[in-house]
């Protein structure tokens, strides 16, 4: 019987060095876009796609993530006493009922492959998602992960989210080699390479931070040699998996922001600010004023 997709892994142990000094004492996943931290956008995308078990792979200095998804008795008592019911609702409803969170420590920074392997005891031989919160993908017009789940229900094999990236940026991504039909939104891949040089990249389709994986990936994660950057790479385990099972790639259906980089983060702030129901009118005015100021 095909097992359902219920578990989503959020590797959040990374140090966020691209965003120093902001990330010296604050997890990069807690950086806000307008009024919500990146990790909350990622969790909301997963919940909307039908996932119910959130598994965070954390490390020291990542405690604020646990606190964010827990209740805060002192704050809630204060808001209730002040009759600030709207704010109370916001802090109490970060997670809807029926959603569970588990936290696993990754004791050493040994790479994304190692982080995913840390979740194995909680996965129970089911297919699962991996979500990288610093790749922020708008859920409109379509929720990327939800579209991947729908595709998974037809094929029951692993699926990676991909996007055409500038040829000179292939070294930032896992890059896939399509088997055929690379023009279509969904296709099977022949190979995947972690962070290839532009001249060695098998295509310009880079993996962005959404994966649906079959539990067979753990077999390869356990036997993996160190790869790019001396780390255990999820990409290398996928390259081994696809020799045994089909692995598909799906082009993302909505805009992505690389919020691990300062410029991507700024762009996301503008996009989400302009879409924010309470702020957008004033924000447009501010941006227009800036534009005229600079001309
Ligand atoms: C990781 C993966 C890479 C993927 C990228 C997406 O790299 O190793 O294959 O393309 O995420 O954001 P990182 O950004 O952690 O260096």
Describe this structure in words.
With 295 residues, the protein is an alpha/beta fold. The chain folds into two domains: 7-260, Spore Coat Polysaccharide Biosynthesis Protein SpsA, Chain A, CATH 3.90.550.10; 262-295, no CATH class. Helices cover 34% and strands 22% of the residues. It has eleven helices and 13 strands. The strands form three sheets. It has a nine-stranded mixed sheet with strand order 5-4-1-6-11-8-12-10-9, with helices on both faces. Strand 2 (32-33) and strand 3 (36-37) form a beta hairpin. Helix 5 crosses helix 9. The longest helix has 15 residues, at 280-294. It is globular. 1-O-phosphono-alpha-D-glucopyranose (G1P) is lined by residues 112, 132, 135, 173-174, 194, 206-209, 233, 235.
Distance between the termini: 63 Å
Instruction: Return the domain count.
Output: 2
CATH superfamily of the largest domain: Spore Coat Polysaccharide Biosynthesis Protein SpsA, Chain A
Radius of gyration: 20 Å
Q: Do you know the CATH architecture of the largest domain?
A: Alpha-Beta Complex
The side-by-side strand order for the widest beta sheet comes to 5-4-1-6-11-8-12-10-9
Shape: globular
Secondary structure topology:
Layout: E1 7-11, E2 32-33, E3 36-37, H1 38-48, E4 53-58, H2 63-68, H3 73-81, H4 85-92, E5 100-105, H5 112-118, H6 120-123, E6 128-131, E7 135-137, H7 144-155, E8 158-164, E9 174-178, E10 186-194, E11 205-213, H8 217-222, H9 234-241, E12 247-251, E13 256-258, H10 262-275, H11 280-294
Parallel strand pairs: 1-4, 1-6, 4-5, 8-12
Antiparallel strand pairs: 2-3, 6-11, 7-13, 8-11, 9-10, 10-12
Helix pairs in contact: 5-9
This protein binds 1-O-phosphono-alpha-D-glucopyranose.
């Amino acid at each position: 019987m095909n097992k359902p997709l219920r578990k989503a892994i959020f590797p959040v142990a990374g140090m966020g060095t691209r965003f120093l000094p902001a990330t010296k004492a604050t997890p990069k996943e807690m950086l806000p876009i307008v009024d919500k931290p990146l990790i909350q956008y990622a969790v909301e995308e997963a919940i909307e796609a039908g996932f119910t078990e959130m598994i965070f792979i954390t490390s020291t200095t990542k405690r604020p993530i646990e606190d964010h998804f827990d209740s805060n008795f002192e704050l809630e008592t204060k808001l209730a006493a002040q009759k600030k019911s709207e704010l109370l609702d916001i802090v109490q409803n970060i997670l809807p009922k029926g959603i569970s969170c588990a936290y696993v420590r990754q004791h050493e920074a040994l790479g994304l492959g190692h982080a995913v392997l840390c979740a194995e005891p909680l996965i129970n031989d089911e297919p699962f998602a991996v979500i990288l919160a610093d790749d922020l993908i708008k859920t409109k017009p379509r929720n990327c992960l939800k579209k991947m789940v729908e595709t998974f229900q037809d094929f029951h094999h692993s699926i990676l989210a991909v996007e055409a990236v500038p040829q000179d940026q292939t070294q930032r991504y896992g890059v896939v080699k399509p088997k055929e039909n690379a023009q279509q939104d969904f296709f099977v891949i022949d190979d995947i390479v972690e962070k290839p040089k532009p001249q060695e990249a098998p295509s310009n389709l880079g993996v962005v931070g959404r994966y649906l994986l079959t539990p067979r990936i753990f077999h390869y994660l356990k036997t993996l040699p160190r790869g790019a950057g001396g780390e255990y790479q999820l990409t290398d385990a996928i390259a081994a998996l696809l020799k045994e099972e089909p692995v598909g790639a799906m082009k993302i259906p909505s805009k992505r922001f690389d919020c691990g980089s300062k410029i991507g983060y700024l762009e996301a702030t503008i996009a989400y600010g302009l879409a924010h129901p309470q702020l957008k009118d004033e924000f447009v005015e501010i941006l227009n004023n800036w534009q005229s100021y600079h001309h």
